[in-house]
Design brief:
With 977 residues, this protein is mainly beta. Among the domains are: 4-206, Galactose-binding lectin (Jelly Rolls, Sandwich), CATH 2.60.120.430; 222-401, no CATH class; 759-883, no CATH class; 895-973, Orthogonal Bundle (Cytochrome Bc1 Complex, Chain D, domain 2). Pfam families: Cytochrom_C, DUF6797.
């Protein structure tokens, strides 16, 4: 083996670039594109080239002259299998120095991953951590010396067990493994150039987090749960503040509940300090998993502190609130209050009060020393401590007392992300009587997975993302709005609201946060704790979904209650606030349960102060309910959150058919400017891209009706522009839950551009229905009854997921009823229907109408729950049987007809046809695995047999799919071989 200096003298000039010692750089020759790439395509005399693995024959040296500045690069898009691109060295090389780094430029996305590989002693090894994915060319540093090396089979290009000992003194090749079969340009890896460098500065760069990941190098703090075990003891932080110390990969965690520092640790070089296990990070942005455990600390624990308030041994945790079936205390300390975070420059200051006295803290690492000890603080005015590794400073009553490490005075806040992005929006498109304009997201390098939107009084929009960012949009009504990221680090937020007096609030898993801009630079630098009065567990589904601010400044929020994800131990924590609607006083101090027994609720506040809640189908929730919360504390049916052991369920205002409203989400209100026929209408937003108007007239039944509109993305929330009145709706899907919409994330404005009558009153009697509209129909407008006009069916609450559809006699099916009379009233503002059979009590009432005119024709559906009607008698059932006696015999199934039904009935939301694992198993090849009888049973009784590795989360479709549609769908499934 040659020494490094000898190798330089032999094959390369000794090269120093800005202090970097370069072993080699490979930037492929600029020649015409061809397959396969060969050794002659290389520019470095130090490297050879070998193609290994099942896909080696199709590795391409690619180049597109029609694309400006397109580089020459290696591409695996056409490779029929995994590949290893290997580059043998001219000489065996000593790379044992700890500061060797591979620097490379890549563009990889889709399911494809790229892994740095090396060969030592004739054996190949690869880093398990993939090169970060990105849709644009990006530079990355990969340190050679890490604990992430695994054995690599160069023939199959598969990773084996972790390497215990790897001899870096005898490296004879470098390589890049792509163990996933590519799929053309939409799912591939591209390698532009790479080099090996040895330099302290390169090592510092290598310690940075990879670009394009959930956690960024610029992040001033991250609100997150944290779990770690140290010296045999498990530590839990349910709503922590994670702070980077900006030196030697050091991080610290503060617990706002007990106002104490919890741990200081050293993260792995160039890796995240925590595992990506939160709901946001585990699905960011293209990962294929659901969260089932809380984030774990990654790296070496350096210091831990007592679990008591303020980490003092003599102070006992006296919190009275405990978890369900546990005496473990949870929630904020009764003797202090967490106030929030302010920025000093770009660093966080942590603020809290004890006994009415304000304290402010910041932690920073010394540049010269590693931690030795932590001096216990005395909490006296003016007292401060420090030590050779960590400096803590805090102030009393606003006067800063620097620590022994001479921490500087708080600095003027600086924007974390100052860049503004201009985007061009497409033209609006007509959709029924509405016009929809999709909004373009900026290409900032950070995915924008939007969950909610709010407007400030001047029309500035604030868009919130699941990943903890707030984006400000100026000129949103123009063709080229300006986007700026103005906040980050929020804990899995789901809601943003602007109160009547202009205050901005976000709702995360940890607290309601008021965002404030202290120096008017357009960026939020104060993250005030408006309320943390609600209880928080470590459970991954314990997140708050929605927020509303009352006229008195108080808050309404909804908390998730899902528990059945297979979690055990600490991951299965339950508190009395799981699955509830909460009211929190304006001072943020007191939380009151308005309703419990909810699975995954959203809360909405109508302009008149009425509180509504939606929920989502699942175990014990047979379809999609809409609740109106009035007096008392109703139990709403989700048994895992029936903490009061209520004996009876308060049924919802109405049920939506699951196929119509798949996963109900937030609420919003239309304006009179942009919706003349829907002025000030309260809307329910559905994840399948639909909107439902809610009407609760003084006379007649409360009902909801589906707007003739279909967005092309999953919708979660909306808000109206304060000047134009246009409704802006946004939302996203995450991994494991494929939406029925063509897009996974979106953002659009909506306005009414054609007049049409809208239903305002619904009266249902035993043999008649009357629908009254907001205005008379013109001579050119009319209504045509749907086919069928009316669907009636019941649903059953059971421990199984969802429910089938059932007739009045509890047999599977739906009552499909036509009218004997259908006519307008004399004033043409009401349509009246008569029936030859009796209408009887039903859980789901779906009245299907078609509004027509000389310019438009579109359907609307009205939903209500006519429980004022009597239950069906045997005579009623006999009359229906007689009416249906001549029902058409089923035709043979048609696969072509069944193919679109696969999407219509939301099968595509949980089952992929390309082998991809979603919530349910993939169905490609299902015809070869299951016979027709098994296929039919898996649809009508899906819990009879659960596929290994999957949850029992599929609802029964018994009675949901009409028999003829089922035959067509089965015939389509038979073609999936």
């Amino acid at each position: 083996m040659k020494s490094l200096s000898f190798l330089f003298a032999l094959v390369l000039p000794t090269t120093f670039l800005f202090g970097e010692e370069l072993l080699f750089r490979e930037d492929f020759k600029e020649v015409e594109a061809h397959i396969p790439a060969v050794k002659e395509d290389l520019t470095s005399p130090f490297l050879g080239f070998e193609r290994l693995g099942p896909g080696e024959s199709q590795i391409k040296l690619s180049y597109h002259p029609e694309i400006p500045n397109d580089p020459h690069y290696l591409w695996n898009g056409l490779c029929p299998g995994p590949v290893l691109m290997a580059f043998p060295f001219k000489e065996v090389t000593d790379l044992s120095a700890p500061d060797w780094v591979c620097r490379l430029n890549t563009k990889n996305f889709g399911k494809s991953t790229l892994h740095l590989s090396i060969r030592s002693g004739g054996r190949w090894y690869a880093q398990k951590k993939s090169v970060a994915t990105a849709r644009d060319w990006n530079d990355q540093f990969l340190p050679l010396h890490s604990e992430d090396w695994f054995e690599l089979d160069p023939k199959k290009v598969t990773l084996g067990k972790q390497a215990k000992i790897l001899n870096f003194k005898a490296i004879d090749a470098i390589g890049f493994a792509a163990p996933v079969k590519a799929d053309g340009s939409k799912d591939c890896i591209r390698l532009n150039w790479f080099e090996l460098v040895q330099d302290a500065e390169a090592k510092n760069q290598a310690s940075l987090l990879p670009k394009g990941e959930f956690l960024e190098n610029e992040t001033p703090f991250l609100r997150s749960a944290l779990v770690f075990t140290h010296e045999g003891e498990t530590h839990l932080v349910r709503r922590g503040v994670l702070v980077p110390l900006h030196h030697d990969n050091l991080w610290a965690c503060f617990d706002p509940d007990l106002l104490r520092w919890v741990v200081v640790w050293k993260a792995p070089t160039g890796r995240s300090p925590i595992s990506y296990d939160s709901m946001a990070s585990v699905s960011f942005p293209d990962k294929k998993a659901k969260a089932s455990k809380a984030p774990r600390l990654k790296g070496e624990v350096l210091l831990t502190f007592p679990k008591n308030p303020y980490y003092k041994e003599q102070i006992k945790d006296t919190r009275q609130t405990t978890l369900i079936d546990s005496d473990l205390p949870v929630g904020p300390s009764a003797t202090g209050r967490w106030e929030g975070i302010t920025l000093s420059g770009k660093r966080p200051i942590l603020n809290y009060t004890i006994g009415g006295r304000l304290y402010r803290e910041q932690v920073s690492a010394s540049q010269k020393h590693i931690f030795e000890n932590f001096v216990d603080r005395q909490r006296e005015p003016g007292f401060s401590t420090g030590h050779s590794g960590v400096a803590i400073f805090y102030s009393a009553d606003g006067q800063v007392h620097p620590s022994a490490a001479e921490f500087p005075e708080p600095a003027k806040p600086e924007p974390i992300f100052p860049e503004t992005f201009r985007v061009k929006n497409p033209q609006a498109k007509a959709d029924g009587p509405f016009t929809v304009r999709n909004q373009t997201f900026p290409n900032s390098g950070r995915p924008i997975r939007s969950v909610d939107i709010a407007f400030q009084a001047d029309g500035t929009a604030l868009v919130l993302t699941l990943d903890g960012d707030v984006w400000q949009i100026k000129d949103i009504e123009s063709d080229e709005p300006a986007w700026t990221r103005v906040a980050t680090g929020i804990f899995e937020p789901m809601a943003i609201e602007v109160s009547a007096d202009g205050k901005v609030y976000t709702l995360g898993r940890d607290q309601i946060t008021q965002l404030m801009d202290s120096n008017n630079d357009g960026h939020f630098d104060i993250f005030r704790n408006a309320s943390d009065a609600f209880l928080q567990t470590i459970h991954t589904r314990d997140y708050a979904t929605s927020l509303a601010v009352g006229a008195d400044g108080s808050f309404y929020l909804a908390k998730g209650g899902i528990t059945n994800i297979g979690a055990k131990g600490i991951e299965d924590e339950l508190s009395a606030h799981r699955g509830t609607i909460l009211h929190i006083t304006a001072d943020g101090m007191k939380a009151t349960v308005l309703a419990d027994g909810l699975r995954l609720p959203f809360v909405g506040l109508r302009n008149d102060g009425t509180v509504f809640a939606s929920d989502q189908q699942g175990h014990f929730i047979p379809s999609t309910p809409l609740h109106l919360l009035a007096k008392g504390t109703p139990y709403l049916g989700f048994e895992p959150t029936n903490f009061r052991k209520a004996k009876s369920v308060v049924e919802p205002l109405l049920w939506y058919p699951y196929q119509a409203n798949r996963s109900a989400a937030g609420f919003c209100t239309t304006s009179s400017q942009a919706f003349p026929d829907l002025a000030n209408t309260f809307l329910q937003v559905s994840w399948n891209g639909r909107l439902f108007a809610i009407e609760t007239p003084e006379r007649g039944l409360p009902f909801s009706w589906q707007l003739p509109l279909q967005l092309d993305f999953p919708a979660l929330n909306g808000a109206s522009h304060p000047q134009s009145g246009r409704l802006y709706v946004t939302g996203l899907g995450i991994s494991g839950y494929k939406p029925t919409t063509p897009e996974f994330v979106g953002f659009a404005s909506i306005e009414q551009t054609q007049p049409f009558p809208t239903p305002k009153n619904l009266a249902v009697e035993s043999q008649s229905i009357a629908v009254r509209f907001n205005r008379p129909f013109t001579a050119k407008e009319s209504i045509i009854p749907g086919n069928p006009l009316l669907r009636l069916f019941n649903v059953h609450r059971t421990p199984n997921y969802g429910s089938g559809h059932y007739l009045w006699n509890n047999k599977p099916g739906e009552h499909l009823i036509t009218a004997s009379k259908f006519a307008p009233s004399s004033d043409r503002q009401q349509f009246e229907m008569d029936f030859d059979v009796n209408l009887r009590r039903s859980d789901v009432f779906d009245l299907q109408l078609n509004i027509t005119s000389d310019t438009t024709n579109f359907p609307i559906h009205l939903y209500t729950r006519p429980h004022h009607l009597p239950e069906a008698s045997s005579r009623d059932l006999k009359a229906l049987e007689d009416a249906e006696r001549d029902a058409k015999k089923l035709d043979k199934g048609d696969a072509a007809v069944g193919k679109p039904l696969f999407t219509q009935y939301a099968c595509s939301g949980c089952h992929a046809l390309d082998g991809q694992k979603l919530t349910g198993p993939p169905l490609n090849g299902v015809a070869g695995r299951l016979d027709v009888a098994k296929l039919r049973e898996s649809i009508l009784n899906p819990t009879a047999e659960i596929a290994p590795g999957y949850e029992p989360s599929m609802p029964s479709f018994e009675g949901v799919i009409p028999p003829q549609d089922l035959e067509h769908l089965l015939e389509f499934l038979r073609t999936l071989k």
